[in-house]
């Protein structure tokens, strides 16, 4: 019965691994479209590509400026598994494939999209929504006149710590700042419209505990939130040390994902002294200063 349904369907939606299921064994398609292709390992992508008919067309949609495939094995990653087919084709000089860039973004307030556009896309992004269509959410937060983007400086006394399992980072003082910001947001925004993200699993665990009174509020790692969006996003940067060590928070692709999930309001909480020792973060903090976006809670 399932085979008949799939055979008669005009469009079949599946995960990449699902394309290899026995129920799809004999199916071929005139077009295969792979979304989030820059996050797919090449072997996974090839499972779907293998379903193309002899005259089929392939469309890969992705963003090489965002996070690559996740590889548990560093050895496999270094040997090439961490490079998606999407990224490899873009780098292939002999490739006859000319990529097309989708330049109009419909998610973010123009103020939120401005710096990522300049920093990661050569200023090519165009806004399909106006500032008037993305007003800052009503809340107890002191939104600047420029729009729904604020930076909250976590004091240097709020030092980072190693998580109990010894595998991650956390910052309890920063958790409290995030909780305070969330509480103010809830004065005018539903919990389900708020996303809280952090680069570290250890911090995500602490944030979930701090925000457990609002179970509808989604709390995830930055990596786990790629491809998602919320009306308001709270970002907890965690790192606070005298060396200016940001770990993988320094990865430009992770920063890009973190700053581009919000539709109406973005709140970034972090220690300025640590962040500005990284050139990329320093550039974003200059943008914050130029638009007077740093506030106190």
Automatic annotation (TrEMBL):
Ranges for domain DNA2/NAM7 helicase-like C-terminal: 82-272
GO cellular component: chromosome
Family per similarity comment: Belongs to the DNA2/NAM7 helicase family.
InterPro entries: Coronavir_polyprotein_1ab, DNA2/NAM7-like_C, DNA2/NAM7_AAA_11, P-loop_NTPase, SF1_C_Upf1
Protein name as annotated: RNA helicase
Lineage summary: Eukaryota, Sar, Alveolata, Dinophyceae, Suessiales
Pfam families in alphabetical order: AAA_11, AAA_12
Domain DNA2/NAM7 helicase helicase: 2-74
Keyword Heme: no
GO molecular function list: 5'-3' DNA helicase activity; ATP binding; hydrolase activity
Keyword Nucleotide-binding listed: yes
Alphabetical keyword list: ATP-binding, Helicase, Hydrolase, Nucleotide-binding
């Amino acid at each position: 019965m399932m085979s008949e349904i799939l055979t008669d369907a005009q469009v079949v939606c599946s995960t990449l691994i699902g394309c290899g299921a026995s129920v799809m064994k004999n199916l071929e398609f005139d077009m295969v479209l792979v979304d989030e292709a820059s996050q797919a390992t090449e072997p996974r992508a090839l499972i779907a590509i293998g379903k193309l008919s002899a005259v089929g067309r392939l469309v890969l949609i992705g963003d090489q400026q965002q996070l690559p495939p996740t590889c548990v094995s560093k050895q496999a990653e270094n040997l090439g598994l961490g490079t998606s087919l999407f990224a490899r084709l873009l780098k292939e000089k002999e490739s006859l494939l000319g990529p097309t860039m989708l330049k109009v973004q419909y998610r973010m307030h123009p103020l939120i999209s401005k710096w990522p556009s300049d920093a990661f896309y050569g200023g090519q992004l165009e806004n399909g929504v106006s500032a008037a269509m993305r007003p800052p959410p009503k809340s107890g937060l002191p939104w600047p006149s420029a729009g729904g983007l604020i930076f909250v400086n976590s004091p240097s006394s709020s030092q980072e710590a190693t998580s109990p399992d010894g595998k991650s980072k956390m910052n309890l003082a920063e958790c409290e700042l995030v909780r305070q910001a969330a509480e103010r947001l809830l004065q005018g925004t539903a919990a389900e419209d708020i996303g809280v993200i952090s680069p570290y699993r250890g911090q995500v665990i602490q944030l979930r505990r701090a925000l457990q009174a609002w179970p509808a509020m989604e709390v995830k790692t930055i990596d786990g939130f790629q491809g998602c969006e919320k009306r308001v996003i709270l970002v907890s940067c965690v790192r606070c040390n005298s060396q200016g060590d940001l770990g993988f928070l320094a990865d430009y692709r992770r920063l890009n994902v973190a700053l581009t999930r919000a539709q109406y309001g973005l709140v970034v909480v972090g220690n300025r002294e640590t962040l500005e020792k990284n050139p990329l973060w320093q550039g974003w903090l200059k943008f914050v200063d130029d638009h007077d976006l740093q506030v106190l809670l």
